[in-house]
Amino acid sequence: MEDFKFLFKVVLVGNAGVGKTCLVRRFTQGLFPPGQGATIGVDFMIKTVEVENEKVKLQIWDTAGQERFRSITQSYYRSAHALILVYDISCQPTFDCLPDWLREIEEYASSKVLRILVGNKIDREDREIPTVVGEDFAARHNMYFLETSAKEAENVEKLFMKIAEDLMQQARSKDLPRYDSITTNISGRTSSISDSNCCSKLT
Amino acid sequence: MDYELPSEFDLIVVGTGVIESIVAAAASRIGKRVLHIDSNNYYGGLWASFNLDSINKLVTENELRNELDKKDLLKENETLYSVGNNAFNLKIQSQTWNLPEKLEEQNEVQTETVDAKEDVDVKVDESWTQEKLLKLSRKFNIDLTPKLHFARGDFVELLIASNIARYSEFRSVSRVLTWLNGQLEVVPCSRSDVFSSNKVSVIEKRMLMKLLTSCVDGDEKEFAGYENKTFQSYLKDRKLTGNLIHYVLYAIAMSTDDTMCLEGVKNTKRFLGSLGRYGKTPFLYSMYGSGEITQAFCRLSAVFGGIYALNQPLNGFIFNNEHTFRGVLCGQQRINAEHLVMSLEKVPQSVVDFSAKEYISRAIFITDRSIMESDKEHLTLLLFPSINGKRTCTILELGSLTGTCPKDLYIVHMFTKQYTSPEEDLKHCVEKLFYKQEESGESEIILPNILWSFYYSVPNTFNLGLKCEQLHNVYMCSGPDMDLDYDPAIAQAKEIFTSIYPDFEFLPRAPDPEEIIIEGEDNNNVLNDDNNEVEEHSDNRTEENLQTQRNID
Ligand SMILES: Nc1nc2c(ncn2[C@@H]2O[C@H](COP(=O)(O)OP(=O)(O)O)[C@@H](O)[C@H]2O)c(=O)[nH]1
Ligand SMILES: [Mg+2]
After folding, report:
1. Structural fold of domain A6-172
2. Which site among A18, A202, A203 would you substitute to test the B interface, given the most B Cβ atoms closer than 10 Å to its Cβ?
3. Which residue has the CA at smallest separation from atom 7 of ligand 1?
4. What are the structural domains, with CATH classification, of chain B?
5. Residue A37 three-state SS
6. Which chain B residues are within 8 Å of A31, Cβ to Cβ?
7. Please, which pLDDT band fits residue A38 given cuts at 50, 70 and 90?
8. pLDDT, tens only, A117-138
9. pTM score
10. How far apart are CA A83 and CA A117, in angstroms?
């Protein structure tokens, strides 16, 4: 029905204000939104990219602001293929919170989820976390590392392409987190089991 | 990251149970400013799921707070009510390990038994210990309120209609069992089940199909004269054999000998109407536990701008002297709102002038094999019929494929209406499923061992007719009820929503991201002026809320 071969769920976490929403919008829409970037009613963004001549659809989930008071639902992490943990290189506290985020990830995400650490806002002059410190942390926790600027569109494309490529490789070697295919998706469009007439309104 | 909560809202929802979360989602969905807070550091309240470690540490006593020194945050003529009461929480009866703590101790025990050369009786699989289970703690998602969903029930329809379905995954219940003539039997659910069953004779098959058809299609005439009679008497009059009556009455209609005919028919319709949509039975179960459900509604609420804060030091509710709700005191902060929706457990003690008249007896077990072993892992619903004056009992067995327990283990949930205590009320089922029957010497059936058990009581507050007479703009949500699905919860949430916002649609369909975002290079409709684009690409079904872009803070 749809024109893609792979569909991957990518979720972003990290303290409020580090630029998660801006990263997503930069990548999916090619823009840097003024002010706080969240759009009411937008749940996840989708972008299809091409890797080795295959269409790969990335479904990119944002936190819906629930990170602000540390109230992200566990279900947000379920069935994610890749997880981007973001901090702000000009804000030490956002780096200091990384271990807390890792604990949460370990608790709720699949152990096989691809994890990427991102230091965002490298366009800023007032850097507080040197690149090596981020690199070190990532290496210690077995994560891929990248510094980005959503504002200047630096490394954003690279970040998501890297994810798409890695996930594709994992998929080919069958090393993806396995989310059992017998589960039923009742959303009425993705699964053949579901009944597409049932999207009628409930009044 | 010390953010302060905004201090003006349209609606404050306190507690993250299912009803509260549905109301929060519905209000955010129509553009109301919603604050959803909980004093717990987890979602779900009495409807939550826990890992093994946290359920063992579960605290059920409400900490009653009343910070009278916060008076300076109140205006003249305002009163502060404390948050919470101890009337409506669950009560833990017992939590028991049936396993050695560590491996060493167990080795000793084993050597002893070998030396004694006595009974080589069923033993707990030597590899399990408390330590080992607790190491796997995170693989458990143990529901306080396990639920199943009728494939065409109110819940599934609401999820589809509102587009909340995208947050959850489900698994079909793969078999329905009953207890018949001293053993477990698979209930033939579907037409093909009926026809392939070797427990039902050819004549019985016809009788059964005919009966089921008349229950579904039958008009009033079919049941004329049965208005005051039981469903059982109707089935008997239809000359069904004993086994068939058993299947229909106790399993398909989930009824008892006393259930009235029309209710039995209604239940039968509910069951049959959900067949054939997703799996072999009418039921679905939420992957990773029923606790995910409240979170799905909370996620939708957040996506539509609802603000979420768990683990909040809730210090009181503020009312004016006309007893109208003004706001809450959260830590040192006063937060105002027009309406308050809260879980029953959060209702101020001083307002609680009613109590639960009924309790639910519940138990959860971790076991080392299925109650009815098979070559594949099943997700089982066992409807234990009322026998020898004992109550019917609903039993759910979940394996590792549901994402609620580790491999090679099962979680068994049991519940029934409370008569005396959870242990007493469920004893007859526990004995039949887990303890060796003396008489049945011939069978080689190895029964599951209980590795861990947890007995608790929950007040059934559903039929209390919760109306807050003395307080205005306040709505209370009941706790978990006895329904297998969420029908009563949805009905109550809808009722609360409609009384606050009578002119708005309840959870209209949320647009799909595909409707908002245009991807691919072949068209240059890249969203750069959001308002216009959103309008343009989110067809007629999208409501006006979407067109407005708002900042979350
Ligand atoms: N200088 C700079 N500011 C950024 C960058 N990314 C985001 N911001 C700003 O950081 C703030 C928070 O961004 P947002 O994406 O809403 O963060 P989120 O809470 O993690 O989703 C906004 O004011 C953005 O404009 C960046 O790469 N460079
Ligand atoms: Mg954001």
Report:
1. Rossmann fold (3.40.50)
2. A202
3. A19
4. 8-88+290-356+464-500 (3.50.50.60), 91-143+358-460 (3.30.519.10)
5. coil
6. 526-528
7. low
8. 999 999 999 999 999 999 999 9
9. 0.89
10. 9
